[in-house]
Amino acid sequence: MALSTIKSDLSLSQLLCIQIEREIVEGKLLPGDKLDEEVLAARLKASRTPVREALRALASVGLVHIQPRIGATVNKPTVSEVIELFEVVAEMEAAAARLVCVRASDPEIAKIVAQHKSCEDQARSGTADSYFDANTQFHNMIWSAAGNHVLEDQIVLLNRRLSPYRRFVTFKPGRQEEAVAEHAQIADAIQNRNSVVAVVAMREHVTILGSDVIQLARNLRL
User: Fold this and answer.
1) pLDDT, tens only, 112-129
2) pTM of the entire structure?
3) Counting Cβ atoms within 10 Å, is residue 15 exposed (0-12), middle (13-18) or buried (19+)?
4) How far is residue 12's CA from residue 67's CA, in Å, rounded to a whole number?
5) Which of 50, 103, 143, 217 could form a disulfide with 13 if both were Cys (CB 3.0 to 4.6 A apart)?
6) CA separation for the pair 138, 156 (Å, rounded)
7) Burial of residue 185 (number of CB atoms within 10 Å: 0-12, 13-18, 19+)
8) Does one domain contain both 149 and 113?
9) How far, in Å, CA of 125 to CA of 136, rounded?
């Protein structure tokens, strides 16, 4: 996506940050890839200063690693670190699902259920990217409806680090169908305000499986 298509009220460094982050999340830049400021500046048609600022911003959220005299690379976590990220986010999203059951308004819950239907539609007839976007929106709605801004902020922050690996698992053949069925359990539990079932369903949905870890590590060079 061209920088010109992103919100124009953002600074150039913020626009570059969004673009580079998207390339990391979409797997166009893989863990360990060198992020040369001069090369990025030429490709993204910007000067090196905003590129440097963008890389520092991405380093602050764990997507980029910067070393003195070596420069910036796409962060390359260990397999254990990726598993730990999934574990923490799974627990946090489970907490959000519980809070939705006990405090979200009926209209908020109705929107979550409707978004689940959108995920089903995208899984049947959409593209992998459109399904991933619908899936992301489903989770975002739950975080927001939980009504706890601290929890939501922390999930958003950790999920930025997790997104490249979450996207990889989501695109695994057959995973969309499994995820839609899991979403159905979550949406049904939320609609019935059954916090016990919602917590278990969300935790199991987000937790990464051992087979996924092995394939992820092999394909993303972890």
Assistant:
1) 999 999 999 999 988 888
2) 0.84
3) buried
4) 24
5) 50
6) 13
7) middle
8) yes
9) 17
